[in-house]
Amino acid sequence: MQPHAARVPLSKRLLDKAVAGFALLMLLPLMLIVAVLVLLVDGGPAIFGHERVGINGRRFRCYKFRSMVRDADAQLARILASDPAARAEWETTRKLTVDPRVSRLGLFLRRTSLDELPQLWNVLRGDMSLVGPRPVTADEAVRYGDHFATYSAVRPGITGAWQVSGRNEISYPERVDLDVHYVTNWSLACDLGILLKTVNVVLTGRGAS
Length: 209
Hints:
Blueprint: H1 10-42, E1 47-53, E2 59-65, H2 72-82, H3 84-93, H4 104-111, H5 119-125, E3 129-131, H6 138-141, H7 148-151, E4 157-159, H8 172-184, H9 188-204
Parallel strand pairs: 3-4
Antiparallel strand pairs: 1-2
Helix pairs in contact: 1-5, 2-3
């Protein structure tokens, strides 16, 4: 039976908009510096938008500072075609532990979570929430199976249970379980707890990729 999603009140959305708007104003100088660094190091666009699945299955562009080289898709295809171990890891987790597509600056941005700052704009637009399930691609969405309706009952988050529970140190099925548990047991106290834990994860870089 499909788990029943907890009802998320309007107060969560209002809090999202207030915090995201304030954070964008305060962090704008830092974001401009990051954008210039990306342009200087690798050229091309500083911000990358990737299609993800959001609330009610709606597709949206999830924004990040670009952490990969410009020919990342071509490099991924070559890696998966030539390295069976990398292909097996990708098919299991949709990530690579050692990813040659990520630039040196990109590694720093990911470890410090600075690459995710543009998602504050996604929060203001209503695509995302500060806290929620991790935004997934259409290919990943099928991994949720019967739980997809639960996952898509709320907006995906910049941070969430997965991000503060080990990130790449946990398996994909465990990640699905964390998202389902979050949605079905949502509370404001839970969101505040995850936000506090996120600060620790960002400062320590635990599980970052």
